[in-house]
Amino acid sequence: MKDYFFQDTIGKPMDRVDGRVKVTGAAKYSAEIELPNMAHGVLVGSTIAKGRIKNIDTKAAERAPGVLAVLHYQNAPKVPGYVQAAHPTEPKPIGQPHRVFYDDKVYFNDQPIALVLADTLERAHYAAKLVKASYEEEKHTTNFAKNTDKAILPTAAKRNPRHGLNDYVRGKEDAYKNEPLKIESEYVIPSEMHNPMELQAIVAHWEADDKLTVYDKTQAVIGTQNAFAREWKIPVENVKVIATYVGGAFGNGLHTWPHETAAIIGAKKLGRPVKLMLTREQMFTMVGYRPHAWQKVGMSATPDGKITAITHEAIGQTSSYEEFTESTLQQTRMMYTSPNVTTRYRILPLDISTPIWMRGPGEATGAFALESALDEMAHVLKIDPLEFRLKNYTERDPEKNLPWSTKFLKEAMLMGAEKIGWSNRPMQPGTLRDGEWQVGYGMGVGTFGAHRGRATVKATLYPDGKVVMQCATTDIGPGTGTAMVQIAADNLGVAPEQITFELGSSLFPPSPSQGGSATVASVGSAVRAASIALKQKLASMATGNADSGFRGAKFEDLTFQNGQVSLNNSPGTKLTYSDILKQQGLPELEVTEESKPGEERQKYSLYSYSVHFAEVKVHPLTGQARVTKMVSCADAGKIVNMKTAGNQMIGGAVGGIGMALTEGAVMDVRFGRYVTKDFAEYHVPVHADTPPVDVIFVDKPDFISTPMGTKGIGEIATIGVAPAIANAIFNATGKRVRELPITPDKLI
Amino acid sequence: MNQFQYVRPTKNKAAIDTVTKDPNATFIAGGTNLLDLMKRGVVMPEKLVDINKLPLRKIEKESGAVRIGALALNGVVAEDKLVLEKHPLLAQALDAGASAQLRNMATVGGNMMQRTRCPYFYDTALPCNKREPGTGCSAIEGYNRMHAIFGFSDKCIATHPSDMGVALAALDATVLVSGPKGDRKIPFVDFHRLPGDTPQIETNLQKGELIVAVDVPENNFAKHAHYLKVRDRASYAFALVSVAAALDIENNTIKDARLAMGGVAHKPWRLTEAEKALVGKPVSEHTFRQAAEVAMRGARAFEHNQYKLKLAPNSIVQALKTAAGLA
Amino acid sequence: MAFEKDCPHALPESSDHKPPHEARRMFLKQSSILTAFALTPGVAVKAADLKFEEKVAAAFEQVKVTLEINGKKHKLSLEPRTTLLDLLRERLQLTGTKKGCDYGQCGACTVHVDGQRVNSCLTLAVMQDGKKVTTIEGLADGDNLHPMQEAFIKHDGFQCGYCTPGQIMSAVACIREGHADSDEEIREYMSGNICRCGAYPNIVNAIKEVKNGGLKV
Fold first, then answer.
1. Any idea where the Aldehyde oxidase/xanthine dehydrogenase a/b hammerhead domain is (chain A) (predicted)?
2. Touching check for B92 and chain C: CB below 8 Å?
């Protein structure tokens, strides 16, 4: 059979299918669902980091007008699925999310300790201010820097010696130490908050005692459904999760959080739907973050620029009740040809809330250290950093000892260098000026596994030629629906205007969570499978019909295009899909197809790659740093939609600008409480911080990755951006800043 | 927000009377800071006296000054022809503040009355002498990166966040006030207070007193004025340090100078000694550096704002260079 | 005292979108102590907080407000503490205007009041009495999108879409104000609208196209 998927639509910069609803304000996000008799919930947070609640005084709140209930650990309806460790002396199980209102224990500052339910939002907010708790405070540990000696190997690694989080040694351990030409540097990133524009929100509605519907901000419709079914010990099919529009998430929708369960508890108690939207402050404490991390890189090289050894160590913080881990050191293991590589990953449990993957998760953290160190090494060697990277380029995965499925990073590097004007980069830092401003150029490489999961898509063709496809994936912003329509259009031979892709409901066939840059790979492959299955059904109907000219024709003999099937060798012999359905008297034609990654993938190493180039200007007197130009290049396989994919790359670059220059959550470790917890204190980039971003795609398909040839984009868009900017600042000023963000105080 | 009563008088006197008589009443104009504080439970007035119907919006020439009504919007003042012509420094400072939306809401009087951005002031769970006198200052030994290097006390090290105020301090502005005891004028530099033992009292306004206008006197600084704001991102952020610099230059010699800083003290910080150090001197980076050194006398930093000891003088030099046309 | 609107404690009225409880209304109709309370409204607020007499107190919480929103007149009874944003989203179901921070720090709630862009989260609905409010729902001309909406689609000026209504309302104002003459000026005057997805360059391109197209905004 002939594949038609690059035919008309895939690769085109098609407008978003949900553009109109988004620009008119018609798209309804979770908190915008209106149900009859809905109550409003507002959470009250603890004001200590560790200890026990001695007393919780809710009288004033309960007396306030409009208040329906104030729930806390003493009076909240019990969640049947909350289970305790088998015996109090046994260690807590790994990966236990915080159990809201479970007992009097406080594990982190601003932990939800009460839920105020009222008839209006204003009344709920006010009454929440009236709830007062007293505590038996215990000594908390929240100072990361002072406790790095308490970092531990993750339990998952301890239990399984083959686990990827274990220490890794290729060649000789810590070989750089004995080499003459080496660097050794420590790097720190602060905790960074996802801070999507939409505040985390849920509407919880018990439609019956054992039937729950939630309109919830999540990246995992099915995961959330399963989690709540477990919590409430009700059948999975009794839980309905709706997330039609998600106002950004960047990873914090990959976990279920205490506020969600709190709203469900509230709805249970009241017997009415409850809407709960977090405040911006609560977004810093209740829905995860990119963990504060310390890293150390030692690197050695030969005088002519061959890396001889790398050692990369990392410590990331986690909570006391849940071990959060990420792949901080992965890029170090596979990106460069070094014969000796050592990595050690540790986590540091603190009395704070649990982190969660934030865009380009651990890899972005790791790449900041690795790609900065590379720049430092190149400087020591007096070699151009681009040349240095090319000298240590790998044509085979040195970690897994497998061939790459595809790798066009070198091409991306060369295209990007040309576009940014890399030849303008001075070898000697601090020598290029534009008026008063110091000018510099830097680069950083990023990589992320080209993942693919198992997904199922239902496709229905109607006699009017329209097609509806459904899958329980979400669209947090990349344009999932749009990409799926394009894949369906080309694989089905139907114009995109005729196709609707429905997502964001647990009533639809299952999909993995929207994380790890895998949605197009997983769901897109299922869309393609469903399209093909639909065509096969159409073919068998057409060829099975004695009256038609198709009789006896094989599937391979047919062309599917423009909503009609025709014979390859007799294009005049054709039938529209509508006609086929009408001939059969079918009101609709439906298929449901699952698609999953195949064995072929085991024979290769699969990654997406990016390389980012930054031009910066730094004012030497005031320390202000501006990114004046960015070029972001991706080797991410075949690009389905140049417009939305380009936008995603731009967004990753902007996220990287924030990581490099402006973002960092500061905790006052005396209280274990954040002091930067709104947009005035935690600075995400604004328009004025953002230069034009040139995006370049290599756009070469990787058919090992998916049948469409795609690889993921979301993570690599931001991985490597922060070091590109830090390296550019070094080039501009001669100042090497190893602790992010690089604010003006660090550059004067 | 707590419940409160809301009234909207149309006469100054009615507004003043209401706030004078009711201990828990307060004026609201733009509301851009007050409502923010009320949402967080930092302040909980029982009565809001909306003054937006009062006739206090005019911008006009008045006895050798530009008189700006207290309710003139920040965005309107920043683009007013008279202001742009006579006091471009003020327009620049206003444009450097907040966002276009907030400037469309915030008034000149409200800008003066805005509270500090010290994070401890905003978090009702933590001690703060300004919010709850006697509870202690969390910033002194805490996260004090944004805090004062001049004029602080052992009770409070917060800074005043206004940009507009820095320009008004430099430009010898006068605040016109109307109150239960009649009208009076307060030099802008005396309008705000240093924290001392009473950081909760931020201005010298008496209970019930209403700002009606601010006068900015004529000067010769329009040609050489610059407002420099250094912040953690390129726009829409409070100042780490800001400088209002205005020079009267003749034959490359500084005839007169005005200089004030923001982000360094509990009030917009006028630098009169540094101004004196500039007068009579030739326009040069050397002159500016010397003045900056004078300006920094008496500065003292805390754990996280040490950088201001360098950033502040650097910013003074840069602002003066730009004002003088050297940058 | 000469107050223009010196009655901050008007009765709830039936045109109210979410009428207060019937019990309250009945009580108020019958109550003869209303006048007494009207003279000393401070008592009512305190009574509400202490729930001494919630039925009385609740009545005093309401203020009459008339607003023209997207060309439609709304007569409302509101608690004075209701922000314009919460009125739009929670009472009138005009959820196109978004809550991103509630502190005037993100711009997602941007609407036009009498043609000027403002943050609807930082103003009380009662303060806008008698004014004309335009939200994203009122920008298009029926089924015909506003040129800025068209340009946002064409230039892909958004991803998740949550900041988009605020960006568009702000962008329209940015051109009307005359602050869209260069990329740099657009960036500065749009900096009050945060887009965490980072679609900024595309937004700038959309604004430029509308500005250069010379279409009426």
1. 24-139
2. no
